[in-house]
Specification:
Elements (H helix, E strand, L loop, with lengths): L2 H5 L4 H8 L5 E5 L5 H14 L7 E5 L2 H15 L5 E4 H11 L11 E2 L2 H14 L9 H13 L4 H8 L6 H19 L2 E2 L1 H14 L1 H10 L2 E4 L7 H9 L6 E6 L14 H4 L1 H4 L4 E5 L7 H11 L21 E7 H17 L8 E5 L6 H9 L4 E3 L9 H14 L4 H7 L9 H14 L3 H6 L9 H20 L4 H12 L11 H23 L5 H11 L2 H6 L7 E5 L8 E6 L10 H6 L2 H15 L2 E15 L2 E4 L12 E4 L24 H11 L10 H6 L16 E4 L3 E9 L6 E6 L4 E6 L6 E3 L3
InterPro entries: DExx_box_DNA_helicase_dom_sf, DNA_helicase_UvrD-like_C, DNA_helicase_UvrD/REP, P-loop_NTPase, UvrD-like_ATP-bd
GO molecular function: 3'-5' DNA helicase activity; ATP binding; ATP hydrolysis activity; DNA binding
Family: Belongs to the helicase family. UvrD subfamily.
Amino acid sequence: MDVPILHQQLTPVQIEAVEHFSGPMLVLAGPGSGKTRVVTHRVARLIEKGVKPWNILAITFTNKAAAEMSERLKTLTNSQNLWVSTFHRFCAHVLRQRAGVVGLQPNFTILDTADQKQAIRQVLSELDYDAAHYPPGKILAMISNAKNDMITAPMFVGQFEDSVADHFTAVVAKVYPAYQKYLLSSNAVDFDDLLLHVVHLFEEHDEIRSQYDDRYQYVLVDEYQDTNEAQYRIVRALSQNSRNLSVTGDPDQSIYGWRGAKIDNILKFEQDYQDTKIIKLEQNFRSSKLILAAADSLISHNRLRKAKELTTENAEGEPVELLHFPDSPVEADSIARHIRHTVESGERDWLDFAIFYRVNSISRQLELALGRHHVPYQVAAGVAFYQRAEVRDLLAYLDLVNNPQNRAAFVRVVNVPLRGIGKTSQSRLMNYAEDKGLTYIEAALQADEVPKMPKRAAASLKAFARMMENFSLADSGSVAQLIEDVVEKTGYTRPWSSSQNEQDMQRLANVEELISAARNHDTIFDADTSLEGFLETTSLVSDLDALEGDSEKGKVTLMTLHAAKGLEFPVVYIIGVEQNLLPHERSLREGNPREYEEERRLLFVGMTRAEERLYLTASSYRDLHGRSMPTIPSDFLSEIDLVQTDGTTLTSDFPETAYRPTSLASSDLSDEDVKAIRAALNRPDKPQLTTAAALLAGNNSAASLPFNFPIGSSVRHPRYGLGTVTAAGGFGHRRTVTVEFEEEDRSETFIVSKCPLQRIGNR
């Protein structure tokens, strides 16, 4: 390929980055500046200069980005030997080659979040702790944060085992090492272990590190501002022999500090690599001039950054608008009506619109309003395909075939479909396996020797174990055929096969889609590694990857600001730009300047997703924590060049629809409820943005309303078992709570006055 052809679609600054050959380079890439094009063209240029494709490693953060980059590179280079990977996939590859060094077998299982929670529940049970009082999700978050900071279980125990200030942390110090023992005995790892094990491989076995360093002589890392401590150390380990490291990123888009990302990795890059070449990509190809100017004026208030001046040759466009509403129901209804009217007038398509928010809980009223106005929408990070119950069940069967030591997979499917193997029988089997040093499958083959095991359960366990052995022996290398065999031999889909129930039909469709995905995988991968590769792919896919690959294009997209990173839309609404929401109350409460600046970066990322129109919204009252609360506008709004508008005028010229926003007078609340709410809220009739000073001077705070099930409280349901209240809404006899249940891995919403929930303890 001629050099001029490679350079045709590049700016002079982009060409400079592409032409860089040796030594470290930092590319500071503003939003919409074409950084993916720079990375792919640079790889193509390296190959053109004689670098072997297998000596190049390109790393990014999502499967979608890696796939997109791979496709571009195939077009540019016509090479099949290039490897573009995520950090986790790269580490999984290294671990399978060096599994024995860290005490694993090459066929280890990568546990997803649900399986990790199940593992924690079992560990808690073995340690005689109640999962209702020690939520597995919270424990996993603490363990994950520790692993991201390279704090191993023994190190964590040394720091916190005797903690008297924080009892919960002291419990985690007991759970963490037991959890790691559980993983090792199951020949399994979690996502964080993939990174942690590889760091230890590279840092404790220099000969292994050196082999990979010598192989990958050119390392390119995208989204470097999102790297955590473990990822930082992996990159360092691969850049000692050959220092041809190129990283691309933007400190202004570092928004994942809460999950371990360290902005200092990119801010101090030149200190780590002192002869670094720095290139700034400041030309934006996405947004209008006014949108870009507003975003730039916001982010300029941050101190933890590397200064850039964003420019664009796009049209000036329309001013950024701040829409303010009397309350959040009116906000939701006005946005829904505005979108529908714009589409029906022929100006836009549904897919042109996106609505972003800081926290998931405020999307509920939007979803209701969009539904009422017949606006098609999709919610990012909903129940992703590989997290659906029937898909997870079948994947658990495949996991057991691939890795018979996998305890979580065994527990998930040993009684699915129902085989008469209850929890007590399962517990007896597990204890027997522990005592004898057996896998659960091996113990199941000896079920009639397990003390106090009922004969029926023992027979079912032995039949199940023999069936799993037969699946392993009959494995032909085709993943699709194996799934079909599992479905047939277990009768998994039999209860739904003749059902006309929509949910059952959807379950069948999901099973068929899984088989289709497996067939596609069979055609790409060699038979001898097909099952292992398929399971790895399904384990590492993210919810956002699933959304981005969705074939449903004619829908409005709803998502959190964190999920919006890397996407772009012609029209963007960012709702709830209010104090305690954006910036989040945690950053204000703790007074941490770093957290506060990350909140500003989060708004910056959301704003720079917009191509042509950008609306920011705020309401005088918003439904939060089960109450309608008075709010004040975000301090960030004073840092942005924008036009303020009464949001209710957004749709004032539209034809009236059958639906009007629900008011207290028109609702089905009792008279007493209405009086109580009006007295508590003292709501103004017209929209107004209340300042903090005015709010304090008027003592205009919402009174506490009766609430038997606070968010975060532990509850028990006679059918679904233990759970935690995650959301609440409504008033009086219409009050509702949403509960996330542990055993069923499901979420349900109940009317408080009618539900059989029982509060547990004071939580």
